[in-house]
Write a structure and sequence with these properties.
This protein is mainly α and about 100 residues long. The protein has four helices and two strands. About 50% of the residues lie in helices and about 10% in strands. Helix 3 packs across helix 4.
Amino acid sequence: MNLQVNVSEIEKALTQLLKELRNQKGDVIEIEPADYYWSISKEELYDPYKDPQKLTLGQLSDDLEEIRKIAREETGPVSLDFVKISSILAAIGHKTVW
């Protein structure tokens, strides 16, 4: 199967999600006490036929600081930043109910 991502669709969906999040919860979202999370290598993450063996820890506060640097234009974005922002979005999704 060949999955294709339409960047414009993702952008529109994210805009709608963030707009609704702001309407429901305001401009600041509390995701405490979450900070550390399990991280699985990309090779194991996308292989559902094997149990992951190489679990490591990620940290939301570190991910958030890197994303803030991009927002402040202190650093330029790199592709790995999608992984960092996805961890933050996942935490929001797990901690926020509307």
